[in-house]
Structures are given as structure tokens and as C-alpha cells.
Amino acid sequence: MSQAFHPDLARAARFLPRVNLSPRLLSVMRFLMRVAPSPRAPRDVVVHDVQVPGPAGAPQVRVRIYRPATLARPAPALLWIHGGGYILGAPEQDDHLCASNARDLGIVIVSVDYRLAPEHPFPAPLEDCYAALRWLFAEAAELGVAPDRIAIGGASAGGGLTAALAQLAHDRKEVKPVFQLLIYPMLDDRTTTRTDIDGEHHRLWTQESNVVGWTSYLGHAPGRPVVPAHAAAARREDLSGLPPAWMGVGTCDLFHDEDIAYARRLSACGVPCEEVIVPGAFHGFDLTFRDAPVSRDFRAGYIAALRRALFPESASPARTSAAR
């Protein structure tokens, strides 16, 4: 789906570049992301890094922990997975977001520095996330975390990894997150094969970039009839038994159709899923223009959903959101 930009975003969107990522540009983009300044984390949140055991035969995984300075113990926790098309990014890019969310919710957030494709294709990034999740559950007492109130979440490719992680945790039956936060997730490699998509209003992530991301992650051309289990979350047929979810996406996002289809399949399989559709919002709008009213409303929506999931004793009954 596509349509005119949201009024809060229209003027700024005209100046956003339509970058079509290529393998040749990848190293340049990684460098620019490393050196680009990012908003500082609030001072009342303690941020530190820990190396945790990685998957069998693989290196340790770095996680970045955000803990409000006055946090009570035990506290709920969120395992956060950053975005970047499976090929870009690091926890530092979300420092302000994670620290602000940890402070506002009164929770611990653990962000995963997973390995990136194409150097490390599937299943390496997902297994790194699973290793971090297992560590979070195993060390919950030491971390001052309530093991029965651990959620998982992410944006874009991080949202795709979140959905796949929920499936993997369900199948392995070792750990059980209580909630999955899916912020415009990258779920379905088959979107790369569509020829009916109008990309005029797509920003920050285009169909050309999508092909590069999925090809790098899968290790082959996307859209094949069959991919390995958990490689593309939308390919799973039976979604029953997964944790409750919150799904948010804009109508000018390349992932709109695949995200809404997945949200509705979750609901059809008996998984509670709150669905928020933002008219005229493009990919990453809430991070690029975080002070816009529509971005503040979007964040408030998923913060409220996390609060209901992680503090059920004080939450009001959940509601299913209509399009905004």
C-alpha cells in the first residue's frame, strides 16, 4: 500500500534521499553509521556492555545493557534487536531510544550486537539473538530481572529477527518470552519478487535495498519456493502458540503488506496481536523525525503495549487499534 505522506512528515520527506543500497555501497554505509553522531542516552540510565556466551562454536556476543539508575529489583526486561536490513547497524545507533524506553518503562533493556550478513548469513544473526536471550533468562537473578516478565522486540530487520526468535524459542522450548514487539518488521523475502509495488513514497528502505538485504541474509536470491525454517518469519505456516504481539507499520512503508498479513495471521492462529497502521508514514519515520507528533504517538502506542505486557498487574485491558 502507498499513499500521500502524513502531514507531520510530508515536508521533511521531500528532502530524504532515496538510497538504493548496493553491495558496493555497503562498506561506505557501515562507515557512515559508525561515525555518525547519535543522541546521547539520558544521564539517569546506566549503560554498559557485556560479552555473553555465543552459539556453539561461535564467538561471544556483545550485549549493551540499559538500566535506570534507581530501578527496583526484580524488574521486567526487553531484549532489543536493532535494525539495518540484516547487513547494517549496531546497538549504539539505538542508545537514546533504548535508554529512554528503559527509563520511561522502568525496565532493563538488553540490546544485541548480532553478526551481520553477508559475512555472516542466516542462521548466524538469529542464533546470536537466541544466545543473548538464553543468557538473559539464565542470568536473570544476577541482573535483577524477573524471568517471567521478559519480552523481545526490534525494528525493521530487528523486528524480523524478533519474529523469527519468537518462533525459534517456541520450537526449542528452553525459554519463553511473554511478548513480541514488532516495529515495521522485515519478515518476508518474497516481497522482493513483487512487481506491483508503487515505491514513489518509500523512504530509507527501497525495493532495491530489500533485494540486497535478503540476498545477503539468505545467502542466495530471495523468493525461492522454500527457505530454511526461521529464515523468514512470514514463511512459517503455523503461528499458534507464539507470544502476544504488537505490530506497527506505516502505509508508505515497503513492509506494509507483509506486516499486516503477518499480524492478521497471528490473530487468526489465536495469538493476541495489536495492529497499528499509520497513514502516510514511511519506514523508520519515528526514528528519523522522532519529535513529530505522529512519531511521538507511535512510540506512546508501543510503550503502552509493553507496559501492559510487562506490568499486567497495573495495566488496563488491551485493545486492538484501528488505523490512525
Automatic annotation (TrEMBL):
PANTHER family: AB HYDROLASE SUPERFAMILY PROTEIN C4A8.06C, ALPHA_BETA HYDROLASE FOLD-3 DOMAIN-CONTAINING PROTEIN-RELATED. Residues 78-285 form the Alpha/beta hydrolase fold-3 domain. Keywords: Hydrolase. This is Alpha/beta hydrolase. GO terms for molecular function: hydrolase activity. InterPro entries: AB_hydrolase_3 (IPR013094), AB_hydrolase_fold (IPR029058), GDXG_lipolytic_enzyme (IPR050300). The lineage of its organism: Bacteria, Pseudomonadati, Myxococcota, Polyangia, Polyangiales. It holds the Pfam family Abhydrolase_3. It comes from Polyangium fumosum.
